[in-house]
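Suppose you are handed only these lines of text.
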Amino acid sequence: TSVVLLQQATRAYGAGETAVKAVDGVDLAIEKGAFVALTGPSGSGKSTCLNMIGAIDSPTSGKVIVDGVDLSTLDSRRLTDFRKERIGFIFQEFNLIPVLTVYENVELPLQIQGGKSRGQMAEIINPVLERVGLKHLSHRLPRQLSGGQQQRVAIARALVKRPAVLLADEPTANLDSTTAREILHLMKDLNSTFGTTFIFSSHDQLVMEYANRLVKLRDGKITGIEERG
Ligand code: ADP
Ligand code: ADP
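From them, the structure of the protein bound to adenosine-5'-diphosphate can be written out as follows.
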């Protein structure tokens, strides 16, 4: 079954003659457990697609259905709730909170969700930190970590929610190729262990090596889909 379904999804900016369609009539189904890369040149609509799937942005027409929920039926408050509960996001810039430790950064989404005691949160967080190889660094601040370690924190922070999909916008763009490979290995490992669905954007050749499916975008449209082993 599809965990993400785009049906004629379109996101236009501006109106009339000067309108730009960042995403233009995209049809795409992504099944649970997929490891999919959105590729294409800068400006082709990769981020806009991820943002619509992640309930950060809404289509101006068409449908975006994620985890069985038609996002176009939700008001902005419910979109926010959906994002907090069901979506994990990681970014090129890591986006960690600089004054919080590794542990506290990873705890934050659970605190925002609420409903769990400190001990219950620790039972979720500690195994995830172990899994991404950060247990021994849990008291450090982000600035005391390498780029690769910071991206691991961001991945752990996204995982503790057990999201329906993990979205990654250019996750390796700020990493050297060795570190990028390590992060991709980790993502792939989490994908095969937990069946977490990963959808990421990239124009990095390395990322394309790891993806099970490449969705090629240009000018907001899908120009090709390539399945790989
Ligand atoms: P990519 O991630 O592939 O680089 P984007 O999804 O960021 O592409 O952008 C696709 C197109 O939409 C680009 O032409 C971009 O300029 C335009 N666009 C994106 N966001 C906005 C915005 N907030 N306002 C106006 N145009 C935008
Ligand atoms: P263990 O089974 O010994 O807990 P694993 O390496 O299998 O160790 O898993 C590490 C931890 O990752 C789990 O204990 C759990 O907290 C977390 N985890 C399990 N399933 C998922 C999932 N679907 N998404 C994210 N994290 C998960």
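What can we learn from it? Strands lie at 2-13, 20-31, 35-39, 61-66, 69-70, 87-91, 165-169, 197-201, 213-218, 221-227. Residues 177-194 form the longest helix (18 residues).
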